Amino acid sequence: MPYLFVAPNMFIFITFIIWPAIRGFQISFFDSIDGRTFTPVGAGNYRTIFGDPTVASVAKNTATYVIFYVLISTILATALALVVNEQKFAKGFFRAIIFLPVMLSPVVVGLIWNDVLDRKVGPLNSLLEALGGGSPGWLVEPKLGMIAVIFVGVWVHIGFYSIILLAGLQGIDRSLLEAASMDGATRSQIIRTIILPLLKPTTLVIIILSTIHGFQSFDFIYTLTGGGPLGATTLIVQYIYDRAFQSPIQYGLGSAAGVILFMIIFAFTALNFLVGKKREAI
Amino acid sequence: MSKLQERATANKWSSMSGKKPPSMGDIFRTTFLIVVSLIILAPVLWFVLSSFKDVTDLSSRPPKILPTHWAFENYTEAFKMYNYKRYFTNSVIVTSIATVLTLTINSMAAYAFAKYNFRGRDGLFVLTLAMIMIPLQVILIPIYLVVANLGLVNTYWGMIIPAAATPTGVFILRQYMLTIPDELIEAARIDGAGEFRIFARIVLPLCRPALAVVGIFSILWRWNDFLWPLLIAQKEELYTLPVALALLNGQLVVPYNIVLAMSVMSIIPVLFMFVFMQRQIVQGIAQTGIK
User: How many residue contacts between A and B have a Cβ separation below 8 Å?
Assistant: First the structure.
């Protein structure tokens, strides 16, 4: 009987996750342009990934995006959680606003910022012009495109990380803070020497989660920049998608990139699990 | 600073719990939060206002904040043209059937893991959780080939089934079911109730809060999901809203004002859910760390 209960779930896992994962690993050693005929190439796809300049630029974009995304998200989410936690006036309202972008469809988020950042008719540039600045081509110049994508990535997810950090903050024993304040510690001393160290396990979880999310980013970028300008915001997931649907179609190369992405995500998920274990032990 | 002054500052700190007139800190915090809120709300508001502008207003430079004439026709046009109803219906079909399916099979698996002893239980449970490590992005190409081989490309089932089994859903429901006393199930067995009847009539109703969390997350995720339906729905009749919006935006065939109106309409259901179920959503995230 219990087997009957787990069967539907397991059937889907095996058919649509485990089997494709095995296939993906196999295909990564082949060349295929139609998904039907496969030519063995040994480790050729992996050599391409580590040698080809196009892939190198995708790797560089992904690394740039993930590093800044994780750094800014973690710092800003911690600051927001600290502030919201102590806020007395309209706390629930502010929390709801910060959380709002998490609920929006990433496709629409991309469209929203595409509209706002438009070089000619966007409100941001008209504001900048009114203030005497130029009108930067946010979505036209490669460097600015990356900055825009990082900013919007943080904008979308910051509420999600803040909520988790807020829960972590609420788990901190109040009496510790009150004792410190009785002993004459200032607010910043309390934050630096008591709150932040106690929050460390949660912060670590945020760093790991945001790293995983960063590597998986795709949808809002698709409508914000479409990977451009000049491929400057093409990250690994879009690269994999393109290898199946945009020319040059290379199923094997895309699968190999998938295997590498898997290894990165596997490492961080395992790390998250270990951190979680340690957290429970404390 | 004298000891006394230090005490005074220290007392301000305890504003964390006390009720005192607004301090410098309060003012700083509120200002900070207002600035952040503006950065979050202003673009969304701008976008909504844009959806009421006509083509002339949309291309005016410098841009106008308010429409010179409120172009409600953007919305009525969207309904008339471009298969908007089709996309909306597709999104509703995929979201609702997928959520019902997810709740059904996830709760079944969760029940087995929580309330039965059977060979391989722990192994299968770990395997279920391990699925978190293989997100769609990683197996994009092989899963597409598998689904294509099964003839599921360009079908509703292709969009619904492959992502219906979720490790987090099983996990949340199992944790909740562990709190249901075994005696309750034993008593029902003694009364002669069948195993499936016990599950459906006794266990499921007791799990309503956990089912609500899993259901809400499934609805949000499916409604906003892009990558998977983008892979499967290659014919326009099957586009869900996000796929339609992303692909229509790229073409110049569809006027931008119509795309804007369609985008705004597509986020309204989610905003409703947010307003009414914020508590469950926020608690769900805080507890599981998963969106």
Answer: 284
ipTM summary value: 0.88
The neighbour count for residue B192, using CB atoms within 10 Å, is 7
Residue A28 lies in a domain: no
Task: Among B22, B139, B281, select the one facing A258 at the smallest CB separation.
Answer: B139
Among B138, B168, B219, which would you mutate to test the A interface (most chain A Cβ atoms within 10 Å of its Cβ)?
Answer: B138
Domain count, chain A: 1
Model pLDDT for residues B126-179, shown as the tens digit of each residue: 999 999 889 999 999 999 999 999 999 999 999 999 999 999 999 999 999 999
Which residues of chain A are within 8 Å of residue B60 when distances are taken between CB atoms? 121
Determine the residue of chain B that is closest to A180 in CA distance: B10
Asked if B42 and B32 count as a contact pair (C-beta separation under 8 A), the reply is no
> What are the structural domains, with CATH classification, of chain B?
77-288 (1.10.3720.10)
Q: Which chain B residues are Cβ-neighbours of A237 within 8 angstroms?
A: 137, 140, 227
Instruction: Give the span between the Cα atoms of A59 and B259, in whole angstroms.
Output: 33
Chain centroid, CA B127 distance in Å:
24
Domain membership flag for residue A140: yes
In a domain, A95, yes or no: yes
Q: What is the CATH number of the domain that holds A67?
A: 1.10.3720.10
Identify the pLDDT of residue B291.
59
Q: At A40, is the secondary structure helix, strand, or coil?
A: strand
- Contact present, B116 and A2 (Cβ < 8 Å): yes
User: Residue A115's closest chain B neighbor by CA?
Assistant: B47
**In terms of residue numbers, what domain contains A223?**
56-281
Q: How far is A130 from chain B (nearest CA, A)?
A: 10
What pTM, to 2 d.p., does this model score?
A: 0.89
Min Cα distance B185 → chain A (Å) is 14
Q: Is A134 helix (H, G, I), strand (E, B) or coil?
A: coil
Q: What is the largest CA-CA distance in chain A?
A: 74
The one-letter amino acid code at A141 reads E
Q: pLDDT tens, A171-220?
A: 888 888 888 888 888 888 888 888 999 998 889 989 999 999 999 999 99
pLDDT at position B82 is 66
Q: pLDDT at residue B13 above 50?
A: no
How large is the average pLDDT for residues B78-92?
Answer: 87
Please indicate whether, in this complex, the C-beta atoms of A108 and B267 are within 8 angstroms of each other.
yes
Within a domain: A16:
no
Report how far residue B50's alpha carbon sits from residue B71's, in angstroms, rounded to the nearest whole number.
10
